[in-house]
Description:
By secondary structure, the protein is α+β, with helices and mostly antiparallel strands.
Amino acid sequence: MLFQKTRWYTVIVVLTVAARVLTAQSTDSRNSSPNPGKDSTAWTADDLLLSEDAKSFRISPDGQSVAWVQTAMDRTKGRTISNLYVAPTRGGAPVQLTKGNHTVSTPRWSPDGKRVAFMASLPLPGDSAANVHSASTQIWSVDPHGGALSLVTRVEGDIDDFAWKSPSVIVYLAEEEPSAYGRLMRDRKDDSRVVDDSLHEPPDRLFSVDLESHTTRRLTENTDWIQDFALSPDGNTVVTVHERSLSEGYDQKIPSITRLTNLATGSSSIIYDGKRTIPYNLVWANDGAGFYFVNDTTTSPRYRTATVALLDYYDLASGKTFPVDRTWSRAVAGNLRATPDGIMVNLANGVFVKPARFIKQAKPGQLIWTRVDLDGVHVANSFDFDVSADARAMVYRYTRANVPPQLFGATLTQSQVAQDIQVTQLNPSLVGKPQPTVEVVHWKGARDEPVEGLLTYPLQYTPGKRYPLILTIHGGPALADLDEWKQTWSYPRLLLNQKGAFTLQINYHGSARYGLHWVESICCGNIYDLETPDLERGIEYVVSRGLVDTTKLGSLGHSYGAILTTQLTTIDPRLKAASAAAGDVEWFSDWGVVSFGASYDNYYFGSSPWDDPELYLQKSPVFRFDKVRTPTIIYQGTDDRQVPPGQGWTYFRTLQQIGKVPVRFVIFPGEGHSPSKYVHQRRKIDEDMAWFDRYLFGIRDSADDWLNLP
């Protein structure tokens, strides 16, 4: 662990291998497991970091079983691992189908229900021990009742996605085998990269593999990069979305196209040129007559940056596209699942979801859908779901801001989710621990428009007493805080609530899930102008209720949440502590370095930095840092392509050199925008808690010594 002090109020920390060992072995730090004799119900950092979750779940064709991927951070391995499980949808003991410290994803049942295929980075048969930890992502299959794993593919790169064509054939998406150039660079161990080198970037194509004959066949000969595909129920037709430029994410100049291909004849045609429609979440109708998809809409003539997702249908016979629903303006949220009579979706509804079925009806010359909203005990918080082929069985992931996630099975009628039964038993160690009160709150923000948020109370709240308030600001900006369990390294709210603070989550202007007007409101030069009043008025709202000690205000955010936290410290001297992870402080360098820099900055600022440098200067908080009076801790990954690492350095050095506030800078070597290693996630929590202890709660104890706080 290397510490470099500059003044009493300034410190920079670089996490090295020694630091990782020290942190992993530490048993007496601020948030480690309680010592014997201490309250065993107290929340710890590891309660949050090591918690389990169930994702990517799929119901078997007969509706009787569900397969899912169970994930958890492994403290010993220092990273997240995942394994495959299966259990009856009506409850029963689960069967663990994979074991080990690897990555498993995307379980898919074979059409006859006899196998579950999945993608995994498991060691390949015959590989030497030296290659075990560099195993690529391949397709495997397993008997859902248990048994040995079978390797389905063995390609040089990684599998990106796959689908069952028949009980014995799988279609998969993968990069074409390396060219002579690629193999030469590999053999030389040359990791140099040429940016946007389309000449030497192998295309992403579709292939099929026969599980019985073990033969592989290339299905497409495209020279571009397939990003998404969906196979028709009969396996004869495939819809593919093709990226045509390696810089599409950066500047959005050359949009993706969508093709429809007959796999039997090889005939292919472009059905969408990308000018108005770029489909995703592709799902074929059960009868194969067409496919449903989500398309982002925007009023911008140039960029798809702040958008609302709408549900559409492509009819195979007519070649026409039909809108499925335009009655719900807040957008489609999450997965689509075909039913015998139409499609089932989650609709965005602020901090909640609104599950709905759309029943298809054919009339002369047109197709229309009738929306049926689902009702049930957990529907508003079923943020992910799957349904059986006959739409009589349902599995959903239920969670609330103060309820850790579990999978539930249920029966499904046309509008009713009933007979709910818990399928998983995740996180048994968290049962019995205290949970805070969480309240959905509203106030008038910028333009006097209503803002929605989540106010979480201190664990030991006493009416009439005033407490510290900490804003925990989400990123994006086109994301949203939901009424779901999100206790993470980036937002350890429970630990702050346990310390005796209110935490406030705010879906400010520019957030998703409130319609096109809201998400687009901060475009075209309005960035900062609406979100900042939303945050400030949120503080005043909680203060007006007599809940807050206004001498103890703080803010914490990651990504755009850090950007807004930084902005607040330049205008609100009341903030006593701030934590900003991976956030911009000046926008000139962001434009060229970030992987989506031009499309993001040109959209939100309404101009490029060379067209309007004065605007970029005005909007960059770094030039107002002489007004900052808030002790600030900063975090940055060295490999971040979403916020340039130089932003963290500029943030730190500017505050350090101005010299008016304590500042601390923590660097995570080898990490991108979000640290993935246990030691870095743990360090982030420990640093935040120590920082807020010192500057907001007014606490300093021996745990500060090993953190070497000023």
